[in-house]
């Protein structure tokens, strides 16, 4: 049997040092993906994360639920998005911060890294906006007597009202959790391992109210559209507020992802003099 076949039969997770090498290899592959395929794959990821966000909002549509139940179970509902990304395959901007491992080892350049991040960010946005249109046209917000619509606007209004410092650091914390979940996904050998490994980090970031730029590409436009249709207080969600949140959340997510990627690169891949 080959080494690859032997590794495939192992039941334990890939050790951290080997996982770092795997993450680097994936980063090299991602940097070389043709732009068209990269964009479509990113659209899928944007839609997948939107599906998780939708599941979260539908659950929150019952305003009678206790706070703790809303946060924990809602967080578990949101996990659907990253499960689909990692198990079905798609390009997610926040997870692609781990490409910095390959950059730190000089296996890819800044141009390849920036190209991937730009295409994936735009593709995630496009996929999320397509999901927004489908959800609104399907009249899903009308569920529970309009309770889901109220929840969607409430979530969006809370996000655009965050002070800049709090928003930035919520985004940093968010992508620390997300990149750790993606790291676990790379280390997993089975679909079951991936799903179980994702649950705690992702549900934790949602329960704590952290800010994920790709999820907000669904939450905020949905809230904007519904608010314009008369749901919630007039002007609770504005286009300027949407842009403000997504720009700062993106910046914070980059920092948080860099912390995880560069820390693991330093521990497992940096060569001492």
Automatic annotation (TrEMBL):
Belongs to the FNT transporter (TC 1.A.16) family. It comes from Xiamenia xianingshaonis. The keyword Transmembrane applies. Pfam families: Form_Nir_trans. The chain crosses the membrane at residues 39-61, 73-98, 119-140, 160-186, 242-267. It is found in: Membrane. Keywords: Membrane, Transmembrane, Transmembrane helix. Its main location: membrane. InterPro entries: Aquaporin-like, For/NO2_transpt, For/NO2_transpt_CS. This is Formate transporter FocA. It is a multi-pass membrane protein. It comes from the Bacteria.
């Amino acid at each position: 049997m080959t080494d690859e076949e032997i590794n495939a039969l192992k039941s334990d997770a890939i050790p951290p040092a080997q996982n770092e090498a795997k993450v680097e290899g994936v980063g090299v592959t991602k940097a070389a993906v043709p732009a068209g395929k990269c964009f479509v794959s990113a659209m899928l990821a944007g839609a997948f994360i939107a599906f998780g966000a939708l599941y979260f909002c539908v659950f929150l549509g019952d305003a009678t639920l206790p706070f703790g139940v809303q946060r924990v179970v809602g967080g578990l509902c949101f996990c659907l998005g990253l499960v689909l990304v990692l198990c079905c395959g798609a390009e997610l901007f926040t997870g692609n911060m781990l490409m910095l491992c390959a950059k730190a080892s000089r296996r890819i350049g800044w141009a390849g890294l920036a190209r991937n991040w730009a295409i994936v960010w735009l593709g995630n946005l496009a996929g999320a906006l397509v999901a927004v249109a489908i959800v609104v046209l399907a009249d899903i917000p009308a569920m529970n007597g309009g309770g889901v619509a109220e929840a969607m606007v409430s979530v969006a209004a809370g996000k655009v009202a965050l002070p800049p410092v709090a928003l930035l650091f919520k985004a940093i914390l968010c992508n620390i959790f997300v990149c750790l979940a993606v790291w676990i996904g790379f280390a997993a050998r089975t679909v079951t391992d991936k799903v179980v490994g994702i649950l705690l980090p992702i549900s934790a970031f949602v329960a704590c109210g952290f800010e994920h730029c790709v999820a907000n590409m669904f939450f905020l436009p949905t809230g904007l559209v519904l608010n314009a249709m008369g749901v919630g207080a007039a002007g609770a969600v504005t286009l300027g507020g949407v842009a403000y949140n997504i720009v700062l959340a993106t910046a914070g997510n980059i920092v948080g992802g860099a912390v995880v990627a560069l820390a693991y690169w330093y521990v497992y891949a940096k060569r001492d003099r």
